[in-house]
Write a structure and sequence with these properties.
The protein has 177 residues and is of the alpha/beta class. 23% of the residues lie in helices and 36% in strands. It has helices at 12-29, 45-52, 104-114, 173-176, and strands at 5-10, 36-41, 60-70, 73-82, 92-100, 120-129, 141-146, 151-152, 168-171. The structure holds inosinic acid and magnesium ion (MG). Inosinic acid is lined by residues 43, 68-69, 74, 97-105, 150-152, 156-157.
Length: 177
């Protein structure tokens, strides 16, 4: 698997340091609010599980799955594949996502969650891809800006593979062909 990676973009150590920093900030911001942290399956799983362990206040978690990607290009249409099991009315919601690319996924999620009358909706995205945004999405917390390249690892996949890399890297071109 590792031989398919052309370049490591963000190391395991850099991810760890950033997750700790975000955890501290979220601990402060969500003290006594008992937020519902919503993990966007499947890409955000690694990030969520590390992030939650850096938060030192009570949080609940739930999972949502949406589809829009096939291979390396977004189909543009977002669908709910798995919905929440929790009633979000009156709750402070924090959506945890792996990457903001065109913004379609997060824009859709924010819109449908707001219709359910939560107290607040905020977004924490590990990555933001530069220069790709088609829809403006308010990201309240983020880890790293990355260049416009297709990345894998630490939850992010190419055709469902490479999620279990400990770092975030760029695939070799020959892997796509
Ligand atoms: P958006 O809707 O275009 O913002 O895309 C967001 C979703 O596309 C993310 O949740 C990822 O699952 C996927 N995605 C976007 N860019 C990448 C990438 O570089 N590598 C892996 N997945 C990506
Ligand atoms: Mg995803």
């Amino acid at each position: 698997m590792k031989e398919d990676i052309k370049k490591v973009l963000i190391t395991e150590e850099e991810i760890k340091a950033k997750v700790e920093e975000l955890g501290k900030t979220l601990t402060e911001d969500y003290k006594d609010k008992n937020p519902l942290v919503i993990c966007v399956l499947r890409g955000a799983v690694m990030f969520l599980s590390d992030l939650l362990r850096e938060i030192d206040t009570f949080v609940d978690m739930d999972f949502m799955a949406v589809s829009s990607y096939e291979g390396t290009t977004s189909s543009g249409v977002v669908n709910i594949v798995k919905d929440l099991s929790t009633n979000v009315e009156g709750r402070d919601l924090l959506i945890v996502e792996d990457i903001l690319d065109t913004g379609r996924t997060l824009d859709y999620l924010i819109r449908i969650l707001k219709e359910r009358n939560p107290k607040s909706v905020k977004v924490c995205s590990l990555l933001i891809k530069k220069g790709r945004e088609e829809i403006k999405v308010p990201v309240d917390y983020y880890g790293f800006y990355i260049p416009n390249e297709f990345v894998v690892g630490y939850g992010l996949d190419y055709n469902d593979k490479y999620r279990n890399l400990k770092y975030i890297g760029i695939l070799k071109e020959e892997v796509y062909s």
